[in-house]
Write a structure and sequence with these properties.
It is elongated, with a radius of gyration of 51 Å. It is an alpha/beta fold and about 475 residues long. A hairpin with a 6-residue loop joins β2 and β3. The protein has an 8-stranded mixed beta sheet with strand order 3-2-4-1-5-6-7-8, sandwiched between helices. Strands 9-10 form a two-stranded antiparallel ribbon. It has 12 helices and 12 strands. It has a domain of about 300 residues: Peptidase S8/S53 domain (Rossmann fold, 3-Layer(aba) Sandwich), CATH 3.40.50. It comes from Streptomyces johnsoniae.
């Protein structure tokens, strides 16, 4: 009985284990399938590659409208001499990073000009931001699209960028450039450098000197990138001028704004840190969300013009350093009010002049080293005007003068000798003298008979009517 009972107990335990296993399998299978589906749906993380992500929809979308019929050529084309500049360079091979509100690359004027860029969103983490790679199709505010259009819009009868051959790399600040944290803005600048931008446009102005932003700008300058920043539109035109950043950082081209008449705008910030100026009065710019245009103004638009001019110079002279490009732009600018000032810096940017600027006789550092200046790429030194060397040295000229004096004395002596002899014969008295041997001359010639004449042999010739000696002889 004990043995049977034991066998029955073992069978019962095996049955219970089998039932539990079956229940576990039925429960685990759906979980395994769900986990597998989740893993398949998750993107693979590739080191160094930012994931693609869709931008958050705009709460409000800036849009534009068609330009009125009969609108003439874009005013900036004539004001900046772009037709002449485009004969020399279009900006090919240069990428301009636009750190702003984004760029709508679907606009016809920007088609094919805009590369895939980055988007930075603020998050509540230690890093303060999150970077994603997005296609350049969204710009809620329209500010970044306007900047991109002024830099690289296609040439047309009604709209043109300064460098229509340049490429644009958009760095979109999801929260707006004015609300971005310093670390987020610094990361955006670093991202533009890593993307290979030759020019970075920062159409923003902050009154605070933030360490992360300053360090990022310094890294960009050290990486040989031309950094262009707007001076801002607060109108702080005091003698010292309130500093605005990143425009006031070393190595940055700070850009003020002038009106259509070429005079500084009252709203444009001023200070000794302002380097250049561009046109900032209200103008038509490319708008997102379609194919229209809108009006914008300020130093942001002026900075975009300088960024486009920098792209032209870098395209024509690819061996120039960023510092040399900046120097070329300031040296060739059109002065306002007679010279450099705190409102417009060296003057209004002149793309054509920047492309043809010959430079002075001084070197890049103003030391006058023409050999170094001639060695700089894109620099054609102006040769010194040759001095007119005299035909004779001073010694030869003196000898020739004395020779002339002596020759003149000899000539005068030869011409005056007869007069001296005559004066000596008359005893150095004034008037004609008696002449030589006057008494002898009278004795030699026998006196002629009155009324007669003398023959050639000196004998007397009878007067007319007198008897000829021969004729009176008797035959």
């Amino acid at each position: 009985m004990r043995t049977k009972r034991t066998k029955r107990t073992k069978r019962t335990e095996r049955t219970a284990r089998t039932a539990r296993t079956a229940r576990t399998a039925r429960t685990a299978l759906p979980c395994a399938l769900a986990l597998a589906l989740a893993l398949c749906a998750a993107p693979l993380a590739v080191p160094g590659l930012a994931p693609q992500a869709a931008a958050e929809p705009c709460r409000t979308q800036a849009t534009g409208e068609d330009l009125p019929d009969g609108t003439g050529p874009y005013p900036l084309v004539d004001r900046l001499g772009l037709w002449q500049a485009w004969d020399l360079a279009l900006g090919e091979g240069v990428t301009v990073a636009v750190v702003d509100s984004g760029v709508d690359a679907t606009h016809p004027d920007l088609a094919g000009q805009v590369h895939n860029g980055s988007e930075f969103s603020g998050v509540m983490t230690e890093e303060e931001f999150e970077r994603t790679a997005v296609e350049p199709v969204q710009d809620c505010e329209g500010h970044g699209t306007a900047i991109a259009g002024l830099v690289a819009a296609h040439r047309s009868d009604r709209m043109s960028g300064v460098a229509p051959g340049a490429a644009v790399y958009p760095v979109r600040m999801d929260d707006g450039v004015d609300r971005a944290t310093p670390r987020t803005l610094a990361a955006a600048i670093d991202d533009a450098v890593e993307a290979g931008a030759g020019v970075i446009n920062l159409s923003l102005a902050r009154p605070v000197d933030d360490d992360p932003v300053r360090d990022a700008v310094a890294r960009a300058v050290a990486a040989d990138v031309v950094v262009v920043a707007a001076a801002g539109n607060e109108g702080n035109q005091g003698v010292s001028g309130g500093l605005m950043y990143p425009a006031a950082y070393d190595g940055v081209l700070a850009v003020g704004a002038v009106g259509d008449d070429g005079q500084p705008l009252d709203s444009s910030n001023a200070g000794p840190w302002v380097d250049l100026a561009g046109y900032g009065e209200e103008m038509a710019v490319v708008a997102p969300g379609g194919s229209g245009y809108r009006a914008e103004a300020g130093t942001s638009m002026a900075a975009a013009q300088v960024s486009g001019a920098a792209a032209l110079v870098r395209s024509r002279f690819p061996d120039l350093t960023a510092a040399e490009v900046a120097q070329r732009l300031t040296d060739s600018a059109t002065p306002v009010a007679g010279g450099r000032n705190d409102r417009t810096g060296a003057g209004i940017v002149d793309p054509f002049s920047a492309l043809t600027h010959l430079g002075g006789g001084d070197g890049a550092d103003g030391t006058g080293d023409n050999d170094d200046a001639a060695a700089r790429p894109g620099h054609i030194p102006v040769q010194a005007v040759p001095r007119e060397e005299p035909l004779l040295s001073s010694t030869a000229a003196t000898a020739l003068a004395w020779s002339g004096v002596l020759l003149l004395a000899v000539v005068l002596g030869l011409l005056g000798a007869p007069a001296v002899r005559r004066a000596a014969r008359r005893g150095w008295r004034a008037g004609p003298g008696p002449g030589p041997a006057e008494g002898e001359r009278r004795a030699a010639a026998p006196p002629a008979a009155p009324g007669g004449h003398a023959w050639l042999d000196g004998t007397e010739r009878p007067a007319r009517g007198a008897a000829h000696p021969t004729r009176n002889r008797t035959r």
